[in-house]
DEAD/DEAH box helicase (Halomarina halobia), 949 residues
Amino acid sequence: MSEREVAAGMDAFTHLGDRVRAALSERGFETPTEPQRRAIPALVAGRNALVIAPTGTGKTETAMLPVLDAVVRRKADESTGVHGVSALYVTPLRALNRDMRERLEWWGEELDLDIDVRHGDTSRYRRTQQANDPPDVLVTTPETLQAMLTGEKLRRALADVRHVVVDEVHELASSKRGAQLTVGLERLYELAGDFQRVGLSATVGDPEEVGKFLTGDRGCAVVEVDVGSELDLHVLTPEVTPEDERLAGRLMTDPDVASHVRAIRDVIEENESTLVFVNTRQTAEALGSRFKELDVNIGIHHGSLSKEARIEVEDDFKAGGIDALLCTSSMELGIDVGRIDHVVQYSSPRQVSRLLQRVGRAGHRRDVVSSGTVVTTRPDDTFEALVIADRARRGAVEPANIHHGSLDTVANQIAGLLMDFGEIDAVRAYEIVTRAYPFRDLEPEAFREVVRELSGNRILWLDEAADRLEKSSGTWQYVYANLSMIPDESTYRVYDMAAGRGVGTLDERFVVNFATPGEVFIQRGEMWRITEVDEEDEEVKVTPVGDPAGEVPSWTGQEIPVPFAVAQEVADLRAWARERFDVGESRAAVARWLGERYPTDEHTAGEALKQVEAHEAAVPAADRVVVEFFGREVVVNAAFGHRTNETLGRLVSALLGQRTGSSVAMDVDPYRIELEVPRGVTGYDVVEVLEGTDPDHVRTLIELSLKNADALKFKLAQVAAKFGALKRWRGGTNGFGRSRLLEALRDTPIYDEAVREVLHEDLDVPTASTVLGRIRSAEVAVEAINERTSIGRGGRSSGRELLAPENADASVVETVRERIQEDRVLLLCVHCREWTRTQQVRRVPEQPECPRCGSTRIAALNPWADEVVTAVRATEKDEEQERQTRRAYRAAGLVQSHGKRAVIALAARGVGPHNAARIISKLRENEDDFYRDILAQERQYARTKSFWD
């Protein structure tokens, strides 16, 4: 550092008072970090500020040193008469409270300030102490702030707040928790008057917008430390070595996956402390089990592990007891695990912001950049990682996806205001809510509808004549049942009966769909066999097993969506590469070109380029959509990212289904929309839909397509609970009940919010409309080819599941076979429509036959499918009964043609007649492959269940 920089750094500390500067010297802080140097002067001056910098660069002290200094000065001035909390530090994770307390305790002792922590696990005794004798600084969570605003003594303590620091504000900005917090801060403003707001954030693409989110658009200084230029990245597809060939057998996987495990192991061995990030908890468990086989000294950390298990590995890693931590986004936030030398990202990080947050955790000693390795698994992965790494260096980060106008949050905070005031004019409540940035555009009529819904649910009293809201007997109960905006879904505790301890949790949907006694799954890198599922106590009892394969838990949480801009650049990169091939350049030459421009090596580039080199048709590009089709398979090569492709895919599926009267199966990734269409439909029909759909009608058509989708029904139940329209909703198999709920809540703000949230989180209607507009104006070309291409085949079906290789091991196959044979099916003769029998699959004859009429047209149905039997027998049918009848007849046709083999396929979870036909039609060498295909379809169903009828 130059003399000038040292002088500038020292100038930052000179803005602080004598006591804090003395403590800095005692602590050994000689020179501020860059964020401290740039932010402290503005913060000492009392300005609102957003500080954007990587974890480990002293962000906490950047915010807290000026705040602590102000609290010290205020306490020294006896005329202020301060008796309450002077500063709040709000953090989204309880684990951060533990770290924060350890880091702030020293400052409190040195400056004679009382610093305390309060969250959901704080004891009643400690909470009472805090109410009677408030600390100077209180570290808390967004939800606990909501609770504190309702307490009589704590409200008096909070009236003295002059500073609020919000940590990990980028995380909160894109969630309803954050939307709730913004109104909570306005409620605090009503109580305490104006206060300084300081946000600490990882890199975001729209810092001014996040600053407005934090402050309610009251003005905000943005201090942003450039991260991209400080990254040392390498994108790597490992070469398969002879060692990998040997490891493949030991790990029960293929050599390619073995090479990934070996390459990550090598990186861990080269560094003292390594974080290994993966994109899903399933992958964390799968990869962890592989490392366990190789005796790698690594711990596992993700949100479904018990709190005790997470704290144990955090402390062990920090103390050097383990060499690496295998983690998900749970480690993106600033949990203190000590110094990190290197970060590995397994497969593409999907988003620039995630790459910066994850790799940004490494390094941070002065003059040391953050170093990371991205291990990629296939061409899509590699091209995507290269583009994301390049965008990171350029600072092209995604904007925060703020929840604007979420109506269940409005409902939640209206009830909170009534707890604050007892009664309040509707106009004043509206003004307070709309001061919060996410609600600045909320229409008065939408607010009134929410109030009327709450009144109808007896959450409040509405005096319409006086336009006044009053607290009711249900307000208190509602508020304390809904302190959090996190959806209320059951989680089942996993309990190890052998060791007598908790292992982690499983989400309810996994338990309902997969968890039955005898099944095996992986958690914490170990194998567990289910011995009992206790529905009442929400507990899954397990025993450990040594079997190296099993069903990976399907936790709630969707795939990280690849943004539109990243997908577009990937398409352009492929197109540029194809142009070089077309002028005669060799793969080695194009690989060298890639290696010069992007942070990768020639082998990695060459492996990805094989896909482009083999693609002889028109290459999909940012301005070209290629629709390829062969038989009933159609692949729309469209590089528009996950959410836009999901929107376009739903649109095409719905319109084709409407035309043909048959369902259209759909799967999407950022670069393709994969369809299975009815006979007679071709790629040209898909082109016609894309070219002929009015962009202005997209939202209407999408909302119609959502009408019967489980995604909307599931979301509707959650939102209804947040409005107090239901008692706590528990999921399950009662789809009929959810359908009735949908009809009952149509034309209510609950329905409007459920649709808004599905559109916000899963789809991108504006971009899809723009794409269709560009297709209409010929800015984007659409062409169809009657063949399959290498890029078209490179989608999800080409990806390797780490624990579900194409040849699953014999024990898993046997488990699937036994489970299905033990299951029961309802047999229904669709010829005479009179005979039914519920029977175990193993007892069904090879060719089922009706004992009443002798017909072999026997439908195999879910044993509880009474509504299907009713539909088949009905003389006059409504639309739903017609659909059920068609489904039964298709199932009967399969059984008539294929006998018991069809019954087995139809008995599998989530396998209807359409998918059963696909499974049956494949040519196989042995029966095990038949059950492997069933298992693959069940896994696919588990992943996509929430999106289908």
